[in-house]
Amino acid sequence: QVRLVESGGGLVQPGGSLRISCAVSGGILTFHAMGWYRQPPGKERELVARHTSAGVTTYADSVKGRFTIARDSRKNATLHMMNLRPEDTAVYYCNAQIVEDGGFYVKDYWGQGTQVTVSS
């Protein structure tokens, strides 16, 4: 079965940088997209960054110019976060959209999340 595991979260001061990673397992997979979402305290989960198999990369307006998503390997993805702000504090979730049933549909898979806290 498909599994996503995030790592690299932690505490960082405002203006600092942090890198979080996502490792995907589950055999041979066909990816439609991979991305990162986050859920700030008391708020709904929101898109942070997403990269599709067609080569399209999308960032939330709030993180443009500060965050970068990258595919480090066939199944892994990394989110590089710079100039972090207190409002970036959230649980960050890795998302993979995987093509199944010969391309009949695309299914979403999620990691357990990793906490990123930006505070002095």
Structure characteristics:
120 residues; four-stranded antiparallel sheet; 57% strand; seven-stranded mixed sheet; mainly beta; elongated
Task: Tell me what the structure shows.
By secondary structure, the protein is an all-beta fold. It is 0% helix and 57% strand. The chain has no helices and eleven strands. The strands form two sheets. Strands 2, 4, 5, 6, 9, 10 and 11 form a seven-stranded mixed β-sheet that branches. A four-stranded antiparallel β-sheet has the order 1-3-8-7, with no helix packed on it. The protein is elongated. The termini are far apart.
For the residues shown, what is the average pLDDT?
Answer: 95
Fraction of residues in helices? Answer: under 10%
- Our measurement of the CA-to-CA distance between the termini, rounded to an integer number of angstroms, reads 40 Å
- Gross morphology is elongated
H/E element order: EEEEEEEEEEE
Number of strands: 11
CA gyration radius, whole angstroms: 14 Å
Classify the secondary structure makeup into a structural class: mainly beta
Q: What is the overall number of helices?
A: 0
Low-confidence stretches: none
Task: Estimate what percentage of residues fall within beta strands.
Answer: over 45%
Largest sheet: 7 strands, mixed
